[in-house]
Amino acid sequence: MQEKKADLVVLGGGPGGYSAAFRAADLGRKVTLIEKSPVLGGVCLNVGCIPSKTLLHLAEVIEDAEKLAPLGVSFGKPTFDLEKIRAHRDSVIGTLTGGLDSLCKARKVERIVGTGTFLSDTGLKVVTDKEELKLTFEDLIIAVGSRSVQIPGIPYEDERVWDSTKALELTHIPKRLAIIGGGIIGLEVATMYHALGSRITIIEMMDSLIPPADADLKQPLVRKLKKQYEAIYTSTKVEKVEAKKEALVLHLKGEKAPETIEADAVLVAVGRKANSDGIALENTSIKTNTRGWIEVDKKLRTNVAHVFAIGDVVGDPMLAHKSSHQGKVAAEVASGHASAFTPMGIPSVAYTSPEVAWIGLTEAEAKQKGIAFKKGSFPWMANGRALSAVCVA
Ligand code: FAD
């Protein structure tokens, strides 16, 4: 195995990793960025935020065009050329990932396309197409992200069973799409496939959609989705999915849900799991919690002082802007600057139609914690911008 010495290593090239690499390079560190994929950008650019927002924009335009007909502007029934839609999605992704390549070159960040696993608290094994390297490092920032959670009882080998990555591939438009999980990702995928013509059923184990957001905040969305979708079953568990030739059969358990429903495709969107189990942390003293999230302090240091961790791999909220800000902070701390991750709030947005956004303590959390608060609200029906954009259901 070839041996090399490195100054600051970043493991993972998603929004957390590339932000950390760029900031550290700007601060004068010699940075080695290790990413197993030949393209940078991680989940967000390649199979997350960017493809989903590109397709959601099309969904919004399609829906707005339909709403305009009664107001005197008609475009006719939309037709879909999936090949062109996919090409548009890929060109948006390509522009952004290409931009990252240029930013890396401009900062002389050394890139290695390979998979990194720990050998010790100071050493990393990197396997590339051509060789195996042993890298010893001064500082290292772990930014290996997360992946979709799988639940038992689902035939994942069946090509009609999707995770979010498969859903965003847009291979075809299923007639009936069942979505397990009524969180942000589930509802965003529902929004795009509904606009493209799928009949949507949502099954959510909690008693409401987008569980973290306050009830009154999401009420306009929930009211609209109840009219648009085939069914929304909350407080309902999917016990198993049977793959029959003609359809997927979902077995449900919930007071108001039928025992079974049929679908032509099923999206499983029940949360994401940290990728901390794929980097041989057992060869180090780095600690994770019971959920597999790497434990860090406000300076984003793990319990090994020269190893930092950022982004989805340190836990909720799993959002790109949190990852990139943590990347900046970790690079600064590793480079001797007085920086810390102490946000007053981190904004969350469901890019549904209408969108739902929140930040900081919710009303429900304030009540639960006995914190006194004042509440202000303003109805969308009285909001000129909302009315003029025809976005009120
Ligand atoms: P990731 O983006 O997961 O990047 C980790 C990188 O590490 C990957 O490129 C991976 O290949 C690499 N890696 C892993 N293990 C190794 C290894 N051993 N060696 C080398 N490389 C490795 N967030 C938002 O803020 N807004 C949104 O609108 C939004 N929409 C989303 C839509 C979808 C469908 C999904 C799935 C997610 C969305 N997110 C959104 C979440 C966002 O994508 C993540 O929070 C963000 O990508 C996390 O960044 P990260 O750098 O921590 O990890």
Write the layout of secondary structure elements.
Blueprint: E1 2-11, H1 15-26, E2 31-35, H2 42-47, H3 49-68, H4 82-106, E3 110-113, E4 115-118, E5 123-127, E6 132-142, E7 146-148, E8 161-162, H5 164-169, E9 176-180, H6 184-195, E10 199-203, H7 215-228, E11 231-233, E12 237-243, E13 248-253, E14 260-263, E15 265-268, E16 272-274, E17 307-309, H8 320-334, E18 348-350, E19 356-358, H9 363-368, H10 384-388
Parallel strand pairs: 1-2, 1-6, 2-3, 6-17, 8-15, 9-10, 9-15, 10-11
Antiparallel strand pairs: 4-5, 5-6, 7-16, 12-13, 13-14, 18-19
The structure holds flavin-adenine dinucleotide.
Flavin-adenine dinucleotide binds next to helix 1, strand 2, helix 2, helix 3 and strand 4.
Catalytic activity: N(6)-[(R)-dihydrolipoyl]-L-lysyl-[protein] + NAD(+) = N(6)-[(R)-lipoyl]-L-lysyl-[protein] + NADH + H(+)
Keywords: Disulfide bond, FAD, Flavoprotein, NAD, Oxidoreductase, Redox-active center
Protein name: Dihydrolipoyl dehydrogenase
